Each structure stands twice: as C-alpha cells, then as structure tokens.
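Action item from last meeting closed. Structure (259 res):
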C-alpha cells in the first residue's frame, strides 16, 4: 500500500489545535511538507515543533482570521509552491436551535466554510491539475447524515459543504484530484468541551451527566480522539486512496444508526 507523501505540499486549515493539529502530525509522518494555517501564531509555532521533519522536509505556518475571507484569500494568493493537499477544517458556528438563529449567523458561517474553501480551491487547482495529483479533505460532521439537536446553523452549513465537495469532486476527477469528507462524531476537542458546557448550563445539570448521556449514544461508549479522525483524513490524502472521491466517511464510534 502506497502511503508515501514525500514531496507533496499540504495546506492544513485550523491546524493550531484539535483535529487540524492531529492531521498535520499524521501528514508530516507520511512525508508531506506541511503549511499550517490558522489565526494564532503562538499556537501554530508550538504545533510546528511537534511535526516530524525528515530529510528534505520543510514545514511553516500562515495566519489569517477565517471570519475574514478577503484576508484568507490574500494570504493564500501569496503561496508560491504548488499545493497538492488541502485540509479544509474550520470551527463550527455557535450552537442553538435553528428557530432562534439570527439570519446573519448563516451568512457568517457560509463565508467561513464555503467561501474560504472556494477561494482556496481556485488558488490551488491549477497546480494540482499540472501535477495530475490533488487531494481535498473536508473535516465536517456527522450532521451531514443526521442533523444534531441544538446545532441549527452548523447542520445547515455542514450540509452545504458536503454538497460543494461532491460537486467539485465530479468536476476535477479527470485530473487525478479527489475530494472527500470526513465526518467526525463527538471528538475530544475544545469545540466538544464548549458544547458540553453550554448544554449543561442550558439544562441546569452537571457536565458529567451530559457527558454520560452523550457517550451512552455511542456503541463504543466513548468520545473519539483527534488522532483517530486524523488517521482517516491522512489516508484519504495518500496515493493508496486514488480511486476514492466524492464520498463522506463517518468516524463516530458507530453512533449513526444507518448502514
């Protein structure tokens, strides 16, 4: 099985923590040159120190606020090297029922996820086509399969992201470029901790009870770890995954009940 990514350049969005950080670590282990992309330079510098750096490998980071698509576009337009791999990974919108959501929240989420992903794709696709190799992996959510209670805006935008990815996958497949989605279930990240805290406050209960209820819905009986999600994302970037495109693969401990 060919898992070698030596000589490939990877742009990893949201790489300062959580799943994005874990994906960067996995890609570096497979030989890729990693460009970390997020808004906090101190955190990104720390992640750089955790990446394997073999002979000929180089890693660096870029900073931008993903709530400002024009800033993101400006930064990525300054990239000189060919980008072979893109990990689209952006934090989810604030939780809450869809009936209570401010319409502006949908616009902001659309910009952060769809507009930024589109700008990145348009920037890197010419190089991918020339190389006859490209990988887009979008870290989304199992809400693509089953909407999650209390995440109205997020459910909406995640679905839009999956549709964007499937459309792009069909258009770029002839060039050896694949586009796939990873759907994490509840994973031990800052985002999950925040959602647990918010739910506990809204329901007037202790966070340990909320955690117990959530884990009871997962056949494996526990939350996922970032590195478990990252392993799937990294595999989809390799030559071994060259015939897999346009799909959404969940990594959720069995929580989604459908086949």
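Sequence:
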């Amino acid at each position: 099985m060919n898992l070698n990514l030596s000589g490939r350049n990877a742009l990893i969005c949201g790489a300062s923590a959580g799943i994005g950080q874990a994906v960067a670590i996995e890609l570096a282990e497979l030989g890729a040159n990693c460009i970390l992309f997020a808004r906090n330079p101190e955190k990104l510098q720390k992640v750089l120190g955790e990446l394997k750096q073999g002979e000929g490998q180089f890693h660096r980071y870029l900073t931008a606020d993903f709530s400002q698509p024009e800033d993101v576009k400006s930064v990525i337009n300054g990239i000189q090297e060919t980008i072979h791999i893109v990990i689209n990974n952006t934090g989810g919108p604030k939780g809450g029922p869809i009936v209570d959501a401010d319409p502006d929240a949908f616009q902001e989420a659309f910009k952060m996820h769809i507009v930024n992903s589109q700008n990145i794709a348009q920037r890197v696709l010419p190089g991918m086509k020339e190389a006859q190799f490209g990988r887009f992996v979008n870290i989304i959510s199992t809400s693509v399969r089953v909407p999650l209670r209390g995440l109205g805006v997020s459910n909406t935008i995640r679905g839009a992201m999956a549709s964007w990815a499937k459309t792009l996958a069909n258009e770029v497949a002839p060039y050896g470029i694949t586009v796939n989605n990873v759907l994490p279930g509840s994973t031990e990240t800052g985002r999950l901790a925040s959602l647990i805290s918010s739910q506990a406050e809204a329901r007037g209960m202790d966070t340990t009870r909320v955690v117990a209820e959530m884990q009871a819905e997962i056949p494996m009986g526990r939350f996922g770890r970032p590195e478990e999600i990252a392993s799937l994302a990294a595999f989809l970037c390799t030559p071994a995954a060259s015939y897999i495109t346009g799909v959404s693969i969940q990594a959720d401990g069995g929580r989604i009940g459908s086949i």
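Note appended to the action item: The chain has two domains: 9-185+226-249, 186-223.
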